[in-house]
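sorry for the late reply, my laptop died twice this morning and i had to redo everyting from scratch. anyway the thing you sent over, i finally got around to it. pasting the sequence first so we're on the same page, its 396 residues, then the predicted structure underneath. double check i copied it right bc i was rushing
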Amino acid sequence: MANTILLTATVGWPSAARYAGGFVAAGCAVDALSPAGAPVRTSRYARQHFDYRALFPIASLRAAIVQSHPDLIVPGDDRAVTQLLKLHRIEDARGSQIARLIERSLGDVASYGLVMSRQGSMDAMRAEGVRTPDSVAVENEDALGAALARIGLPAVLKADGSWGGEGVCVVHTPQEARTAFRKLAYPSPRWRSLARALRRKDAHFLHEAIAPAARRVSMQKFVAGHPAASGFAAKNGEIVASIAYDVLVAQETIGPPNVIRRVDCPQIHEAARKVARRFGLSGMHGLDFIRDARGDVHLIEINPRATQGGTLPFGVGRDLPAALAATLSPANCGLRPAIENDVVAFFPRAWQPDGGGTWLPSAHHDIPWDDPAVLRAMLAMPAGANDSEVRVKIYG
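ok and here's the structure:
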């Protein structure tokens, strides 16, 4: 019987559908836990669909695992990772096989507290010899002045527990730093969370209204340059496939990449190897970098889940779903046709006005022709909503 992959998502990003196609091509069956309206729910590659309920996330996750009985779980956003870790704590106390499944899927779950700490993860990788910008934890507003004196301006303020491009502010003055700190560190008023829940029809804001929580904030040194990134698949701390790319065109100042170029970058691949080994990671992960004027890369963030770049098939050793599937069984040896052009324009963002610039005529267009219902679903999404999980942290 084919191995089963359970994709989990708490938002409707199209990348889950693209991963489904990759795993099916490798020889696996794919089930998906996702919210209503997510493009993956229309994919011809998904065998079973399970409803993600924002009001009861852990219960809906557990029910999907029980019904799917997967060999591996692949989370597609940071909230999905957090929920897997919460379920692991519950099931581990019971000695449940669900806990063992989550460990196989994520790797060393005990390391994720550090992985998901913006400050802690950078400190750990700096100790491993990876080039990272200087950074410091900002415990409270009184400590902001000392942090600015050490880091200098401009600087980047980041909040733990944020993702999808939110929780990151580039500041150029002390006043901007104070305003950003207050925005990032303090919870929103309950009335505002309730209003957001109604306006956006997103029940996750109800959780924030019920139990608002402060967030840890760190300050990172500004690095001039352009964004770069990587995606990798790993098992027990060893990378089985990886890709690296530079961002050629991005959406707005802080937004997802519209056009990328795959690159062979030893610095990026070595950083990925050290991240995977240091934290004992399994599954899909991504890293964000800034490439400076000299061509050196600076690691600025770890994304402990499947990212958009990892959906792209660039052949053996560069097709992440295929390589991860092969760790389950030698029978999972299928491979999608490789993209021969290193420049890729992401659909549909690159087709929007000023979305792809002069790269459009020569780029490979990542259009899901093989999954027509997903193609239609992506076209129907509001402008700017497609794969906003890959917001690139462009400084300045």
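Confidence is low (pLDDT under 50) at residues 388-396.
thats about all i looked at so far, will dig more tmrw
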